Every structure is written in C-alpha cells, then in structure tokens.
Amino acid sequence: AQLRYSVPEDREPGFSVGDLAKDLGVEVRSLAARSLRLVSEGGQRHFQVDLAAGVLLLNSRLDREALCGQSPTCSLHLQLVMENPLQLHRVEVDVLDVNDNAPQFPKPEVVLEITEVANPGTRLPLEVAEDPDMGSNSISTYELSPSEHFALSINVRGDGVKMPEIVLEKALDREKVAVHHLTLTALDGGNPVKSGTAKVTIHVLDANDNPPVCDPPISKVHLEENVPVGTLVTKLNVTDLDEGPNGDVEYSFKTSNNAPGKFTKLFSLDPRTGEIRTKGPLDYEESSAYEIAVRARDKGSPAMEGHCHLRVELIDINDNSPEIVLTSLSSPVQEDATPGTVIALIGVKDSDSGENGQVRLQIAKELPFKLVSSFKEHFSLVTNGPLDREKASGYNITVRAVDLGSPQRATQKTFYLRIADVNDNAPNFSSPFDTAHVQENSLPGTSVFSVSASDPDEGSNAKLSYSILLNGMQDVPISTYFRIDQDNGTIYTVRALDYEQDKVFQVPVEVKDAGSPALSSTAVVHVFVLDENDNAPIIVYPSVPTGSAFHQTIPALAEPGYLVTKIVAVDADSGHNAWLSYQLQETAEALPFQVERRSGEIRVAQALRESEDPHRLVVEVRDNGTPSLSASVVIVISPEENSVQDFAKSLDLPKSSPKDTNLTLYLIISLVSISLVSCVMFAVVAARCL
C-alpha cells in the first residue's frame, strides 16, 4: 500500500506524523513481531517508527527550503518493510511550508543616479528582494519611504515576480538637494508578516545651470610695495553651485586698456585656484595702485562665466637705504692742522620720499672730527680738535646715514684718514745720565758705551744723529779722548787713558733729528777709568840711590822684637793694585831678623851673638795687582856695642820732598772726585725712583 502524510517544517523532533498501525490495518502488538523497519531514500533519517505506539515520529527538525529549495512541492519518500509475510509499503511525507524566512535584498544599500534635468515620470528600476518561502509566504508587496520627488511603482513579470521601480514625480534641483536617501521595504504574505529593507541613495547629477559668482564682485587689497615676488595678493572667492566640470572654474585676466602688457608682468593668476600673486617687484613711486579684472569660466557645455574686479593699492614703505657718496677726501692731513680744516666732502641721497627720504648723517663722538652741513644732502667733514700722529697715526672714520622712516634704514661707509707727521717731538734719551767704565791703557778705538735715543716722529723726523758737545768740561777738549758714531751712538776712545791722570770724564752727547727745523736733546755719560796695575811700588824710606845700600846700626845685645827700622813705600795705583806687602828675600843662611808683612817694620827675630858680622837684608815690596809689580831695597845692619838708639832716631824719616807732596795731593783729589761722582749718582737714582 502507499501512505501519504504531511508535516509542517517547523515541528520539533518527536512530533507524530501519522498512525501507521491504523493506516496499515495491523495490530500494534504485531509490529514488533513482524520486524517493522523504516528505510529512507537518500540515506537521511528524518523519521523514526515508534513500535510500541505504532506511529511515525519526526526524528529531526525539517527545513523545507534546504530540502527542496524553490520547488513548489516538497515530498520525502519512505519505505516500510514487514516480515512474516514479507510486505513493502511506500510512505510519502509532504513537508508543508512555514513563513520562517523574511524577505532579503541582494544588497543592503542601493545607489542610483539621476540627472537634475530629468523629466517627471523617469523610472529607476530596483533589484528584486528574495524570500525562500513559497506561496503566500513569499514576497507579497513593496513599500517606499515618503518622498517629495519620488514614488514607488510595482510591475509583475510573466512569471509572477513583482518588480519595484522608483518613479520621478517632481523636478529635481541638485543645488538644493544633491542626494536623496530613501528606504525600500519588501513584505511577504505570511502570518505574521515578515519584511526586509534596503537603503536607496539617489545622487542627483549636476547640470551646468549656474554661472560662477564672485563674492564680492568688486574688492580692494592694500599691499606693501616691498613684498617679495610670489607674495599672495588675494584668493578670489568664486562659487559655482554646479559640480564636476560644471562647477570647475578656470581663471584668467581680462585685459583692458590699462596697460595690459605691463600688468601681466607684475601679477600672476593661478587658473585653477584663483590665487593672485606678485610676479615682479612693485614700486610705490612708479605706480600707487593697479586695477585688475578677472574672468571666471566653468567647464560646462555651454560654458558660463562670471567677472571679478580687484583694486590693488600699494602702501609706501621705507624700502630704500640711504646712499653715501664720498665726493672728496684729503688724505693724509698734517697733524698740526687747525680745527675746522676740511677733510672730506660727503653727499647723501635716498630714493624714498617724505620722511623716508630725509637723512641724518653722523660719526662717532670720540673722533676729533665733526660733520658740518653745507647745503641739502651735502656735508663737510672738518677737524674738531688737535691731531697727534704719535697717538693715532690714522683714523677709520665710519660715516652713518639714517633716514627718518619707520622702521629706520641706515647705511654706513668707512674710509681711512692718514695723519702726516710733523717734527713736533725732540729725540729723547732713555736716561739723561749714564755711567760707563773703561780700562786704562785700553787701545784707541775701544768701545766704551752706546747711548740710545728715540723719536716718536717718523721718516726723516725720526732719523737721529749723535755727536759729542765741545762744552769745555775738561781742561783738554773731550774730543781728544773720545769720539761717537753718529749713526748708532757708540762712544769709542781716541787714545789710551791713564787712571792716574784722569779718573772720570763727563762726556756730553747730543742727539739731533733730521726734521725741519731739527730738534735735539742732550745727555751726559760719566766715563770712569778703571785702574790697571801699571805702576810699581816706590820705596820712600829709606831713600837710597839705585845700586846702593842703606846702613843701619843696632845694639849688639838687642833683644828679639827690637825695632831695627821701617820700610815706607807708596804705589800710584789704587785699590788692590795699591795694597803693598813686605818680605825678605831668601838667603843661603838664616837671618836673625824679620819684616812685618803689612807695616814694613824690621825687627830682631832672635838674640844676636857677640862680635857678629853685619847682616845684609834685601827687602822686597810687592803690590797686589795682576800681574804683581815690586821694588826692593838693600839694608845692611851692623850690630855695635854700646849703641843706643831710640825709635824716632832709628826711623829718622826724611822730610817730605815736593814729589811726595804731589803724590799726597793726587790721592786727595782722587778721593774728592770719587765722592762727588758718587753723590751725583745717588741723586740721579733717587730722582728717577721718585
């Protein structure tokens, strides 16, 4: 037999599909004995048999759309097998559709385009929504959200599918509303009704129905004249309500009779952005204002255009620095120039006008110069005080020109003024008094001393020559003793000097420059003659002719220490060269006498023997010079009995001779001269220190 059942697709597992035992006409208790079993076609077990109740149960939830798709009918075929006897029954289960699916559009958002000049009645087709359900559960109708310009129209195809369309009911204006947003809803016929929505965006395409508009149509811009090339003058504010090429504006200059060739050299116009920039330097003095006409044209078809008028007024600024012109310069200038002497003529100029072109000229206050205004924009630079080349041999004079603009502009010019020398400074010795020493007996031409002088002048005014003055300080002209090199100031001896004759010389030296008139100054060089051991000692007592001996008697019984006599000697030299020492020349036999080394006293050294023969002594007097010089005297001492002699008689010093007197006088003069020179030197040193 063939059984047929139906079941809605939304039933839960365990739902009773049909009573098999009843429909097959068999007892329920016999189903198990006859081994009733269910065989599904396709191997899927959507159903099961309850043998105890004899009913067909739903084994799993059914999905009609998954099982049969869009087929109008959906049936599942089963086979029931029973044994004893073997029987085969066919079961067909119809799966009934349930409204379990909502309509769904292929895209959640639909974008449409329509030109703003489209006529009412224009249709925009829409995509059909899909609903897996069938029959009355499928899509029933469409709805569109309210709109002033659009309505919904539904057409039915030959297969019964409903096709939605949007119909333009009112003319569009993109400049007012460029985009329209609508909602399309699809409704099915189920109970309850299910729906699906899609957003519909309609873009209104532009049409070239609006010309470019300049806001404001006439404008004015103030611009400083010194702006750099490329400075933005203004950006034109042009609007075109159209879009795309219809609203894409190009700019160009509209030439006129106002010097179009020159105008285009000064300004540039960006054809895309409408920016007007400077193209060349602007000069207020050349033109204070410019009139610019600009054409704004869109790219529509046909093209539409608007016009803008711009007036550019230049602001005069202080854009020119003063210029200094050195017309004349007198360099060098004499250092003895009187105040008010004109040094230079200076002119100034400024291309600006008004206060921007008024110029003040100035120099540093510490300079000995000043500026005197000759007439407009011309000045004289004159001396304002004494000049001294020795303090400043020249001046870097910086002249600064400042205009009265705001901000001020300044220019400076520096030139060098050289000061010419005048012989206004006498030569000057490093010291008015100098001291020199020279060895006596030095060869003629020996260098004694070099004087040094300086002159702050320059050139011939500083060329010095030295000379020795013949002022009669000595009895003999000083030039017979010394000479001087006129170029370097070195003093040389003319002849050998004798310390014993002249111990000190005052050499007056004059230095003179080569200026006109020549200036000079003097200094004194004290030349001290240094002693040399060139004089041998002279024995004053006893005075014995050369080759003779001095005889002296003493008591035969004279005791040791008895003063026999005293040797007196002098030396014309001084210092160590005049230090004398006395000694006995060695003999073959020992003598009972001795001589005091410093005093020259001869005394008995040991007791004399009776009837002793006379003794011959050679006493040598030697100075302390290098090399040492000496003199000697022979003394014969004869012991006599009953010879009594007192000390004064034994000395029996002779009266001083004229020669001895002269020697003493020389010693006194030397001491006095040395003392005077020392006092002078001390005074000079004290004065310099103070």
TrEMBL record:
<dbReference type="InterPro" id="IPR020894">
    <property type="entry name" value="Cadherin_CS"/>
</dbReference>
<feature type="transmembrane region" description="Helical">
    <location>
        <begin position="663"/>
        <end position="687"/>
    </location>
</feature>
<feature type="domain" description="Cadherin">
    <location>
        <begin position="430"/>
        <end position="539"/>
    </location>
</feature>
<dbReference type="Pfam" id="PF00028">
    <property type="entry name" value="Cadherin"/>
</dbReference>
<dbReference type="GO" id="GO:0005509">
    <property type="term" value="F:calcium ion binding"/>
</dbReference>
<comment type="function">
    <text>Potential calcium-dependent cell-adhesion protein. May be involved in the establishment and maintenance of specific neuronal connections in the brain.</text>
</comment>
<feature type="domain" description="Cadherin">
    <location>
        <begin position="325"/>
        <end position="429"/>
    </location>
</feature>
<dbReference type="InterPro" id="IPR013164">
    <property type="entry name" value="Cadherin_N"/>
</dbReference>
<keyword id="KW-0732">Signal</keyword>
<dbReference type="InterPro" id="IPR002126">
    <property type="entry name" value="Cadherin-like_dom"/>
</dbReference>
<keyword id="KW-0325">Glycoprotein</keyword>
<dbReference type="GO" id="GO:0007156">
    <property type="term" value="P:homophilic cell adhesion via plasma membrane adhesion molecules"/>
</dbReference>
<keyword id="KW-0130">Cell adhesion</keyword>
<dbReference type="InterPro" id="IPR050174">
    <property type="entry name" value="Protocadherin/Cadherin-CA"/>
</dbReference>
<keyword id="KW-0677">Repeat</keyword>
<keyword id="KW-1133">Transmembrane helix</keyword>
<feature type="domain" description="Cadherin">
    <location>
        <begin position="106"/>
        <end position="214"/>
    </location>
</feature>
<feature type="domain" description="Cadherin">
    <location>
        <begin position="6"/>
        <end position="105"/>
    </location>
</feature>
<keyword id="KW-1003">Cell membrane</keyword>
<keyword id="KW-0812">Transmembrane</keyword>
<feature type="domain" description="Cadherin">
    <location>
        <begin position="215"/>
        <end position="324"/>
    </location>
</feature>
<dbReference type="Pfam" id="PF08266">
    <property type="entry name" value="Cadherin_2"/>
</dbReference>
<keyword id="KW-0472">Membrane</keyword>
<protein>
    <submittedName>
        <fullName>Protocadherin gamma-C5</fullName>
    </submittedName>
</protein>
<dbReference type="InterPro" id="IPR015919">
    <property type="entry name" value="Cadherin-like_sf"/>
</dbReference>
<feature type="domain" description="Cadherin">
    <location>
        <begin position="546"/>
        <end position="656"/>
    </location>
</feature>
<keyword id="KW-0106">Calcium</keyword>
<dbReference type="GO" id="GO:0005886">
    <property type="term" value="C:plasma membrane"/>
</dbReference>
